[in-house]
């Protein structure tokens, strides 16, 4: 699972915490040479993209690892730059924290000093770094509803970006907040440049680098479930390989000092408009350029009329806030051009990003434009048929570009959009094999095949899914019943059964049925009796898991994490079967987070049982399965590793389209039942 979110954000979001503040060291590293490198390698097509991906990995792998080894994490990537923070923790002094931050910055700088220019058939590649470091206050918040995003801001972040601007190539500049921490320390010699400081002499201060590595033991399951609300499927499922493609880049500036509720309102408008026109929200960045919302059209996937979609998007956003200019003011830069697209970063934290001249130009346009203006480049202007919606603003010089760049203002204020074509989905009808009425006889060979398949899944200590497919009345349920009797008699397993119904398709109803049986809930019992039984079973599971943790040292961390989540999500599992406690985590969660935590809690509970003994999960009539229950199955199938789980589903021919999406390394089997003639 890709680490697209900082664990800091993920863990807070999971626990219903949406904003906060902390004291931290912040580092901003700007890497020069990225854009020239991208432009050189672009001529190489796929080969150039592969080479660029390799160079990015070679640069980011050690630098990102260094941040995490020093107790920090990456907040965001900005193409050829990244911001990180190292939170202050109570078990170290401020002086020790300062040494860690300085050591981290120096080590990253050394990576670039050691970087040797790469000679390629497309030209020489040389990268340098300019780094700013500061200490101060950091605020963070998670915003949005249908789709979430997050931001970090504060004087620590603004000060480090400000310090970086005065750095020379391969140089670290520190803010006075860092300098003051070492005031009087004769071993470290500083020089002054303007209001900031550079280091003339630095002794070895590499102590305390790995003892507080930033980690929250966040599982892949946690990332998969809770990341879905921050990223569209196009990003979550994007190919790891980078590529060059034509993209529309949209950079929109706003005042970062706006109250959180106003930023929330703006963000909702942005998200709704992006959803309507299928754009990708990269992130919200609050730093040296103020508040910036970065969006792309044409990446990770291209759509028809990406340019028109981008213009329709910004037009809709401007119309939505038209009556609130006294509160919300925006300015936007939009460019069209060929760029590099792909994941940037390292395994600790990556981000789907876009790099190239056109991206940088969109940011430059945004910065230079006046409030409530939209600037576009000539490449975009030339591709719009109706030139009346633009006015020529002039030729301007922009940092990083040799020649003056022609700029056009997007001035259309009429209602309507720019998408002219209508899109429709093609219906697909599944084949319906015709069969005569026939009589069912023995299923010995199918029963043997089912037994062997489940045994093989368990022997491999993995998860797998088996589909038993056939017409109604052909004997699917009977086969399952015979399997249950024969396999259960000779193997120690946990059996879970999910009941589905054509009539009752309420969300997660099959798993509610499963939980009520597993926790021995009865309508005959009082509410307190059902609570007591539920508590006892949870306690038994935890005690058994604790024994596993003691006996199998290799799985200790994994088991303890499952126990921790069982305790955390106890009220969420209980609420699924109508057991509630006042002021529990479930009662405090927002509706949306209740759902996501319920998905996670169900998966964690089944993983707990898999840790104790092999599990067979039966889904009868998967064609009646609701989409939320199907999502639970997908999570289980693709996230359970080194644990024995066999999912057995029965399906009619017409319902076999409802297969669970499985990763390539997962066991997927089909058992087709046929009629016998007599």
Task: Write a concise keyword list for the protein shown above.
21 helices; 678 residues; alpha+beta
Structural notes for this entry:
This protein has 678 residues and is an alpha+beta fold. It is built from 21 helices and 23 strands. Strands 1, 2, 3, 6, 7, 8, 9 and 10 form an eight-stranded mixed beta sheet that branches. Helix 3 (45-69) runs antiparallel to helix 4 and helix 13 crosses helix 14. The chain is globular.
Blueprint of the fold:
Blueprint: H1 7-14, E1 19-32, H2 34-42, H3 45-69, E2 73-77, E3 81-87, H4 94-113, E4 118-120, E5 123-125, E6 128-144, E7 148-153, H5 155-164, E8 171-174, H6 176-181, E9 189-193, E10 196-201, H7 220-227, H8 233-236, E11 243-254, H9 260-277, E12 280-287, E13 290-297, H10 306-320, E14 331-346, E15 349-355, H11 357-368, E16 374-377, H12 378-381, E17 390-396, E18 405-410, H13 444-459, E19 463-469, H14 476-490, E20 494-498, H15 509-518, H16 527-551, H17 556-568, H18 570-576, H19 585-588, H20 591-612, E21 615-619, H21 627-639, E22 645-651, E23 667-672
Helix pairs in contact: 2-3, 3-4, 7-20, 9-10, 13-14, 16-17, 16-20, 17-20, 18-20, 20-21
Short recap of the structure:
With 678 residues, this protein is of the alpha+beta class.
Radius of gyration: 29 Å
End-to-end distance: 52 Å
Largest sheet, in brief, is:
8 strands, mixed
Strand content: 15-25%
From the helix content, strand content and strand pairing, which structural class follows? alpha+beta
Envelope shape = globular
Question: What is the residue-averaged pLDDT?
Answer: 86
Helix content: 25-40%
